[in-house]
Q: What sequence folds into this?
């Protein structure tokens, strides 16, 4: 295993720790110390050239200046997580590991933390976020890795969907959709499901959306709308685990 | 500022906000400072019997009356000086036992509070981490010992026979307080920190750390019954033994501290 091109060994671990920021599931703050004191210890442990300046920058970046002298025990869960996030970025690491960053937070605090995580985009660092919250993964992750003891699959959410479910579209018609299943199958589009006035159609390399719409119009259908049909990441996740269990 | 100093500053700041943790050490230290006064000053006054009249103390009288550094003590003063000097070992050990709770809690407490994981993700080495933890408990313990020593010496100057206070300034007394005391503190607290690294609760770590007190308590008993006299040579050997024990305990501590397991498996 290597991190940032550096093989991960006991000898290289210390140097690598300087380049990695870790946000643990629990904020892990010292309750009897103030926000500033908490951050200052870490700035010194990372041997930053000017620890006080680094802490001041972090307080500003995370909008914590007004809370700097408060004991961390007095902060809300969301604010504690914010301080922990500031701590993990104090030394401007190349890689940031976030372990369940919104675990146990109320929706408002969770959104706040997600905004901060999204704010790391463009900061030229890799952000690795571990979560069981698939909605969160969908919102913040560019690429997703599904793990079950070992790596099951990795890719963008779109790639994972396509791998498992292919590409589907949802076509809304003006009348009963079931009447158009047979004409489509007869024209070579086999993966067709109807429900009320909606058709769910699986596309492949030969069948594109314009081709599908043309076939429907030729069959006499009146098309209201065509939208991509996306499985949720949760469906993708469960599907990948089932597929993994089936193959193992 | 080194990593040890950074973490030590945190430990001391943390303890300053939680002074109650030193209350047991303070009580035991005060008791240890009071104990020789009770034996050497209060009991003879209360019973009306001079210690110098007891045949048990004749050797002590001979030795302590003739020591030039004590400025020619009387018989009763010589016995008091002997008692004060023997009880210095208790004075040294008492605050250590009080600080044991701090040391025992140091690592396992951080595990339980989930503050250890982010700490271990920094470049701090295991040696630096353990050194800061041990010093964080030892510095207040040694400070408490010195305070109790000053109180005992001051009390002897006021309450004991004239000139008895000089026994506190003898080379072996100073070596006991300033050399054996800190070294014994370090050894005891290192043992507690070692135990704390592997324990799942602070209590079991504390019990193990307290074991180091046993040989030193044995030394006190040996000194009181006259089996051992704390001469400069004996003190030097004890100090060397403690130094070796400290070096060994630090190595054991580092070996026992399963850093990666704490990060990945401890819950």
A:
């Amino acid at each position: 295993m290597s991190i940032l091109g550096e093989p991960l060994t006991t000898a290289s671990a210390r140097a690598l720790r300087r380049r990695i920021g870790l946000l643990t599931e629990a904020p892990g703050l010292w309750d009897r110390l103030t926000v500033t004191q908490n951050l200052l210890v870490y700035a010194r442990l990372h041997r930053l050239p000017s620890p006080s300046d680094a802490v001041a920058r972090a307080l500003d970046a995370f909008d914590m200046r007004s809370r700097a002298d408060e004991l961390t025990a007095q902060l809300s869960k969301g604010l504690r997580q914010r301080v922990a996030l500031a701590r993990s970025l104090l030394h401007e690491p190349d890689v940031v590991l976030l372990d369940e960053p919104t675990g146990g937070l109320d929706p408002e605090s969770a959104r706040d933390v997600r905004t901060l995580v999204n704010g790391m985009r463009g900061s030229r660092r890799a952000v690795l976020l571990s979560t069981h919250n698939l909605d969160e993964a969908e919102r913040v992750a560019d690429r997703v890795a599904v793990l079950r003891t070992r790596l099951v699959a990795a890719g963008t959410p779109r790639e994972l969907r396509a791998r498992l479910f292919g590409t589907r579209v949802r076509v809304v018609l003006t009348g009963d959709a079931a009447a158009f299943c047979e004409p489509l199958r007869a024209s070579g589009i086999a993966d067709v499901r109807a429900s009320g006035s909606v058709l769910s159609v699986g596309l492949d390399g030969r069948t594109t959306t314009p081709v599908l719409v043309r076939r429907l119009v030729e069959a006499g259908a009146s098309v209201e709308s065509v939208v991509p049909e996306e499985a949720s990441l949760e469906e993708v996740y469960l599907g990948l685990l089932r597929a993994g269990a089936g193959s193992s | 500022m080194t990593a040890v100093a950074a973490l030590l500053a945190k430990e001391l700041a943390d303890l300053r906000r939680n002074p109650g943790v030193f209350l047991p050490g303070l009580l035991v230290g005060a008791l240890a400072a009071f104990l020789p006064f009770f034996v050497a000053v209060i009991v003879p006054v209360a019973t009306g019997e001079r210690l110098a009249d007891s045949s048990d103390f004749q050797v002590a009288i001979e030795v302590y009356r003739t020591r030039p550094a004590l400025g020619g003590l009387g018989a009763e003063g010589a016995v008091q000086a002997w008692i004060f000097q023997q009880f210095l070992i208790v004075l040294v050990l008492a605050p250590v036992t009080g600080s044991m709770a701090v040391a025992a809690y140091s690592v396992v407490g951080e595990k339980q509070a989930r503050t250890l994981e982010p700490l271990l993700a920094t470049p701090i080495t295991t040696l630096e981490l353990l050194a800061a933890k041990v010093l964080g408990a030892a510095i207040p313990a040694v400070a408490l010992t010195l305070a109790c020593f000053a109180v005992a010496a001051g009390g002897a100057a006021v309450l004991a026979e004239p000139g008895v206070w000089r026994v506190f300034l003898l080379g072996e007394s100073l070596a006991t307080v300033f050399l054996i005391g800190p070294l014994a503190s370090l050894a005891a607290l290192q043992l507690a920190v070692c135990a704390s690294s592997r324990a799942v609760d602070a209590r079991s770590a504390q019990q193990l750390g307290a074991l180091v007190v046993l040989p030193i308590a044995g030394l006190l008993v040996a000194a009181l019954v006259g089996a051992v006299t704390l001469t400069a040579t004996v003190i030097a050997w004890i100090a060397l033994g403690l130094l070796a024990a400290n070096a060994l305990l630090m190595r054991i501590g580092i070996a026992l501290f399963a850093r990666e397991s704490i990060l990945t498996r401890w819950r």
